Amino acid sequence: MDFDTRFAAYGVMVDSRERVLLALWNEGPRPRWTLPGGGAELTETPEETMVREVAEESGYEVEPLGLLGLDTHWIPAERRLHGTGPMKAVRAVYEARIAGGELRPEVGGSTDECRWVPLTEVAGLDRVELVDAAIAMWRASR
Question: Which of 55, 74, 118, 140 is 20 to 30 Å from 83 at the Cα level?
């Protein structure tokens, strides 16, 4: 079977108050919460992708602390937003720390806002499955 592959990188930032930074993704059939991050450019390393995408979506400058893991997900052709066939998403999940910048919404992108959400409230959000997988990776690294 022919299929497309998309590589992306995401950042997990949890502050001292046990809040995780999430972004409201607006490209699906309904807005859902996700991690800040996204698709790699051809010449970027995974770490560079995560740093750029977090900055675009949140306004924060971040430093990667380490790779938490990889998550894969496949999307059938009929659920694709862009493209025609099925797609396999390969997602690198990094723990990162805020190094500068200021929280602000993305302008003209795939997210509407970024927000610090208490970890205890994440389960009640309408979110993509990557959020749960990434938080589980982060908890396993503690």
Answer: 55
